[in-house]
Amino acid sequence: MYCKCVFTVLICTTGYIQAGVLDLAQIVQDYENEILGRAVGFSGRPGIPEKEEESVPATDVGKPEEVHFWDSNLKLGQVSGVAINIFDDPIVFHRGSVSWNKDSFLPNNVLKDQSKGPITANTILTVDQFTGKVKSEMGANLFYMPHGISVDHENNIWVTDVGLHQVMMFPWNSTTPSLVLGEKFVPGSDQNHFCKPTSVVVSKSGNVYIADGYCNKRVVVYDTKGRYQTEIHGDWTVVHSLALFQEEDTLCIADREGRKVDCVGAGINHPQFLGSKILETENLGRVFGIAGRGSALLAVTGPESRRKPDGLTLDLVEAGKVVDNWGKDLQNPHDVAVSREGDTVYVAEIGPNRVRKFEVVAPEDNIFDHEFTA
Questions:
Q1: Which listed residue, 84, 135, 291, 355, has the most CB atoms within 10 A of its CB?
Q2: Is residue 32 part of a domain?
Q3: Does residue 52 lie in a domain region?
Q4: DSSP per-residue codes, 161-189
Q5: Distance between CA atoms of 337 and 84, rounded to whole angstroms?
């Protein structure tokens, strides 16, 4: 089992007692090294020096294998997002009869044809994890261009709509949002506006990370009351998907057109390192969706002229090394989610409009289950 040791830095530790005689810059550097190396992000197995650390054995990597025809009961429009609720059922976000194409927006990012009204179909479907049948549905007459969906630890549903330029939160068992962020149909780049927001993840401590994705190339942080906190910027082109590793205090960002994933400090336990880069994995292809569990970061990439769509498994303990390719029949993946048990993966596809289910075939000890506790 791989572990991550979390250390508390105390002012009275040996290295800091001698603050009066040590160079201040060295003290600061030592402090940052200890925090960044041990309390933020992913580390190797304790007791093994970094230079001697072994590679992850191939047998430790869980292999997603498709469950064919699982979604044959679903009638969907463009499937933009998929998430997992606390009962391990997938929740699907789709666009009904609406399609996003080159004529959907004006040059100023304002949605065309607003007069047609919202999508009349139920756009948020809770699907039985075993049968693929719809258990419940909602979202009719609320959305114009659905995009991202996530479920927090209290089973609240968070969604983004790139046409509305808004983010909404639906409490568990409610069909009405209790929180709406952004101004309806109005793109912007300040604390109260988004421009085509793409994805949301929420920490147990109440940090709400919103990928403000197509126009502003940023991640905006709010609290669960909708109060602006701060924002994160990086060398990104389209911030398309987010994955949060709560215990590792790490936020991973899929830059679709940058063809990479960056992982930065999430600022949960160490606010001073919010946005500090932990690792960067480049040349992955156009990364549409990411999700994580254990030390595994799952990614789905879209089709390109000389590259087929792909499912990738990266091991963050191994600095984001790609340790598996899967999903050989994917056609146009847009999002990915992994179950809370780490044994099932779902991929949302746009054209064909479907949700694919994969079961993770692996030894009992694999990177989908690795914990990072002392």
A1: 291
A2: no
A3: no
A4: ETTTTEEEEE-TT-SS-SEEES-TT----
A5: 7
Query: What's the total number of domains in the chain?
Result: 1
Averaged pLDDT of the chain: 85
| Residue the block writes with tokens 């580390």 | 43
Instruction: Answer yes or no: are the C-beta atoms of 217 and 239 closer than 8 Å.
Output: yes
pLDDT in tens, 118-172: 999 999 999 999 999 999 999 999 999 999 999 999 999 999 999 999 999 999 9
Q: Which DSSP string corresponds to 229-298?
A: EEEEE-S-S-EEEEEEETTTTEEEEEETTTTEEEEEE--SS-GGGTT-EEEEE-----EEEEEEETTEEE
Q: What is the CATH number of the domain that holds 310?
A: 2.120.10.30
Token code pair at residue 370: 């690795």
Residue 201 inside a domain? The answer is yes
Domain hosting 250: range is: 58-361
CA distance from start to end of the chain = 11
Q: Which two tokens stand for residue 4?
A: 């991550």
- List Cβ neighbours of 308 (8 Å cut-off, separation of 6 or more): 330
The single residue listed with the structure tokens 């997992």 is 84
DSSP letter assigned to residue 114? G
- Domain assignment present for 28: no
Amino acid (one-letter) located at 166: Q
For 313, the token pair is 């498994």
Question: Which backbone phi and psi does 300 adopt, to 5 degrees?
Answer: -120, 135
How crowded is the C-beta side of 211, counted as CA atoms within 13 Å? 33
Smallest CA-to-CA distance from 162 within 223, 101, 253 is with 101
